[in-house]
Amino acid sequence: MSQNTKKEKKPKQKKKMDAASWIIVIGLILIAIPCVAFAYILLSASAATGTVISGDRFTNDLDPAITEEQLAAVDTAVESIEGVESADVYLKSGTVRVYLNTIDEMTPEVAEDLANQAYDKLIQECDPSVYFTQSSSKKMYDIEVHAYNLEENRESDSFVYVIVNKSSSMEAPIARLVSEPLDPELAAQLLEKLDRKLNPEKYETESDITVGGEGDIEEGSTE
Question: Residue 71 pLDDT > 80, yes or no?
Answer without folding.
Answer: yes
